[in-house]
Amino acid sequence: MVSEATAGRLIRGVWYAPQTSRAVEASLVLETGGRLTAQDEAGAALASCEFSAAEVSDRVGSIARRITFADDSVFETGDNDGIDRLLAPVAKPGSGFVHSLERFHPRLALFVVVVALLAVAIYRFAVPVLVEVAVLVTPPVVPVLLSSSTMATLDGTVFEPSKLDAETQKNIADDFRDLASVSARGSDGYTLNFREGGHIGPNAFALPDGTIVLTDELVKMANDHQTVLGVLAHEIGHVDHEHSLRQIYRAAGVTGLILLIGGDVGAGVEDILIQGSALLQLRHSRSAEAEADRFSIELMHRTGNDPLAISRFLELIRDKLGDTSDSDFLSTHPATPSRIEETRRYAEELMAAATD
Ligand SMILES: [Zn+2]
Question: What is the pTM of this model?
Fold first, then answer.
């Protein structure tokens, strides 16, 4: 008999006796205690067994569901939702079809997680590898083109010729040549350009072909020959480690890099290479800055200059420009306390080792 409690849970469908294809109008009920029964219009049981002994087909789209009783007779219905609702109280996770329904969501979540991890992996591992490959296969003409277009853009828009007196320029240029002569490219590998910075203000930056720009404003702000040299040594470090080129390639993204390495210099890649001014908007990573700082300290030390110059300069921009300044130089060369401390510690370490 159908109890009061389960009377509402009644699914309409058809029933097939074992080994026949003759359909009988029937309904399916779940009795208290978990017994499944297919009954005819008059309420007489056609087949009945414990839920655990019945086999319920998985839900696949709107395909009719089949419940196979222990006696091999089959109840079939298109009322998928009704079946799910009816059987929900008795279906245990891990047993039967409801389990596979529940599994659907964790599986989707897992898929999303895997895709996200893959994307992270591409950015963490594929991009750095592609960047290194791109740097390796970059024809020497590319950095030259990049740099000359950047200089042309800047000279046409923000820069004015330097107003530093000839003697100051000569002193800086001479010592710059000494610094450059002991670095990887040699003194011919670098060109120092003096400019009045305009809205770029106190700044120094290196372009990938070894072109280094020093603004009058920076020389005035530093107000100390050694400090200026420390900054120039830092910029030589950026060139030596090919930071700018890496930076550009990183910004090109996976697609750009693949096109670039594949030699398909289409419009997109040309944009990346010709839009030289984009170079200035790129920020070096913190690790690139740290690398250039160490380079400056080592180079200054090796050439008999003051290895602490770069720390002094960082302190200067911290004090003069303040943390809230939106100066390009500060944003591209953040003078964080840890950076100041790092450079100071490393310079003192080098000096101590030298006197031992
Ligand atoms: Zn830097």
Answer: 0.61
**Cβ 75 vs Cβ 67: under 8 Å:** yes
CA 135 vs. chain centroid, Å, equals: 20
CA angle in degrees (0–180, nearest 5) for 126-209-340? 75
Question: 125 C-alpha vs ligand 1 centroid, how far in Å?
Answer: 24
Domain boundaries, the chain: 10-91, 100-137, 139-355
Residue 263 CA to residue 265 CA, distance in Å, equals: 6
Give the contacts of 230 (CB within 8 A, at least 6 positions apart): 296, 300, 305, 306, 308, 309, 310, 312, 313
**Runs of H (alpha helix) within the chain:** 80-87, 97-121, 127-137, 141-157, 166-181, 216-222, 225-240, 243-262, 267-274, 278-281, 286-302, 309-321, 328-332, 337-355
Q: How far is 83 from 77, CA to CA, in rounded Å?
A: 8
CA 115, CA 136: separation in Å to the nearest integer? 30
* Residue 212, helix vs strand vs coil: strand
How far does residue 214's CA lie from ligand 1's centre (Å)? 13
CA distances, 63 to each of 19, 20, 247 (Å): 21, 20, 55
140 CA to middle of ligand 1, Å? 22
Fold classified for 10-91? PH-domain like (2.30.29)
Check if the beta carbon of residue 2 is closer than 8 Å to that of residue 33: no
Cα 239 to ligand 1 centre (Å):
10
- The answer to whether 204 and 257 are in contact (CB under 8 A) is no
Q: What is the mean pLDDT of residues 44-54?
A: 90
| Identity at 173, one-letter amino acid code | A
Distance CA 32, CA 48 (A): 13
Cβ–Cβ under 8 Å, residues 294 and 253: no
The per-residue pLDDT for range 198-246, each reduced to its tens digit, is: 888 888 988 888 999 999 999 999 999 999 999 999 999 999 988 888 8
CA of 285 to the centre of ligand 1 (A): 9
Cα 235 to ligand 1 centre (Å): 6
Q: What tokens appear for 184 in the block?
A: 């990887």
* Spatial contact of 55 and 68, defined as CB atoms under 8 Å apart: yes
Helix (H, G, I), strand (E, B) or coil at 12: strand
